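The following block was generated as part of the benchmark described in Methods. Ligand: magnesium ion.
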Amino acid sequence: MRSLFVMDPLETLDLSGDSTFALMRASTGRGWEVWWCHPSAMWGEGGRAKARAQRVVTTAAGFDRQEWAEVELADFQVVWMRKDPPFDMTYIFTTYLLDLVPPSTLVLNNPAGLRSRNEKLFAAAYADLTPPTLISRDIQRIMAFTAALPDRVVLKPWDGNGGRGVLVSRAGDPNLRSMIEVLSDEGRRYILAQRYLPEIVAGDKRIILIDGEPAGAVLRVPGTADHRGNLHVGATAHRTTLTPREQEICAQIGPTLRAEGLVFVGIDVIGGWLTEINVTSPTGIHQINAFDGVQLEERLLDAAERRAAERS
Ligand SMILES: Nc1ncnc2c1ncn2[C@@H]1O[C@H](COP(=O)(O)OP(=O)(O)O)[C@@H](O)[C@H]1O
Ligand SMILES: [Mg+2]
């Protein structure tokens, strides 16, 4: 087996916690040939996707970097799209290049799914599973939605990640309109307004789904200095299990994820409410492995091998 990881530069990875590195290490462990490339080193020519890529072997300390070569993506069994956001036009165009890869190669997550599924709107489409949510760039409409909420409102950019730009406010807050103006760039950019879930103080649960099946979860509890449950802004990771409600959420969305080739997905659940379906480059397997004594990267590779075998 040969696999190619489309990703951020190797030197930017935090090896102790990076999910992509865990996948590369497990692939090396299975005797696969592992290559990596940056999206900027990909191109299309003659209807085919190509890249300047480097072969690597993972070691205890990191990577043993080997030769560089111009490769054709069709010559790999598996191509992992693991570029971190921003989800911008360059990211989207990279998925178009991945569309040039023939069906005999497994690309995951499926580039069409990466394009069509916005992480926050995908969740919002399941109205029964998500908190009341408005998606708009009309400042007046967002003000009115906030006024009708029983308590606070959460405002977030449509394309955020890692908690960036997530604000908490309430009707009557003299800063509210100004916050909406800034976040929506005066009504030029869509934002989400969502009912504030006080259960966030108990944590934001990241559940990993592999090929539509829940594989593990980690609870991220916000610190005292910041309301957000994102680890890099001070939230702490805790061991957890799934409640029946969370299992029900997974059961409802799992078949769609599987059908759309969204093999490696991380959902966020606060107080039993689905807030996000992360498809671009989910993380969290390191924490779940540590708490549960599992190796989710091996389960991901099993899923990739299974799907790749169906194609060859
Ligand atoms: N409806 C909500 N109620 C309370 N807090 C929320 C809500 N939505 C988001 N948050 C807070 O913002 C953080 C990030 O939200 P999320 O929607 O997952 O965006 P991101 O993609 O930036 O992680 C959450 O961990 C939580 O602390
Ligand atoms: Mg999140």
